[in-house]
Amino acid sequence: MHRRRFLRRVGVAGLGTGATAALAGCAGVGGDPGYDVGMVASGYRPAELTVAVGDTVVWENTSSRTHTVTAYEGGIPDTAEYFASGGYGNEVAAREAWSSDFGGALETGDRFSHTFEVAGRYDYVCIPHETGGMYATVLVEE
User: Fold this and answer.
1) DSSP state of 13
2) Whether residues 39 and 26 fall in one domain
3) What DSSP character marks residue 15?
4) By the 8 A CB rule, do 99 and 129 touch?
5) Model confidence, pTM
6) Is 71 helix (H, G, I), strand (E, B) or coil?
7) What is the pLDDT at residue 61?
8) Strands, E, within 6-142: which ranges?
9) Angle formed by the axes of helices 17-24 and 3-10, to 10°?
């Protein structure tokens, strides 16, 4: 579970001093980075994230390479809303937009967010780095 989500759920006030001190360095210098998933040169960090129904996940491109966040249409629950940076309604449209004009591109520092309303597994990919293995998963629990 991501540090920010953990602290929000349990509340820092409910933790003992030792637990608070132990968690203080989890996000590195500067504390909470303001995003849940970072994009590095060839991957998403973390590669698997567990959230609750209704949570919003924020991705940020923390690398110097251009990335996308593109759901695998067959890798999300049947009743779930499709998501892709660029706002495309399906995987085919997202891939075509990337191929034709780099649609859905997230440059360094750009963010994309999506709220998950249906429990289940959500697999997604960075289109330009798919062959290099840049894919990840969000697990949404009730």
Assistant:
1) G
2) no
3) S
4) no
5) 0.79
6) strand
7) 98
8) 37-40, 43-45, 48-52, 56-61, 70-71, 111-115, 120-125, 135-141
9) 160
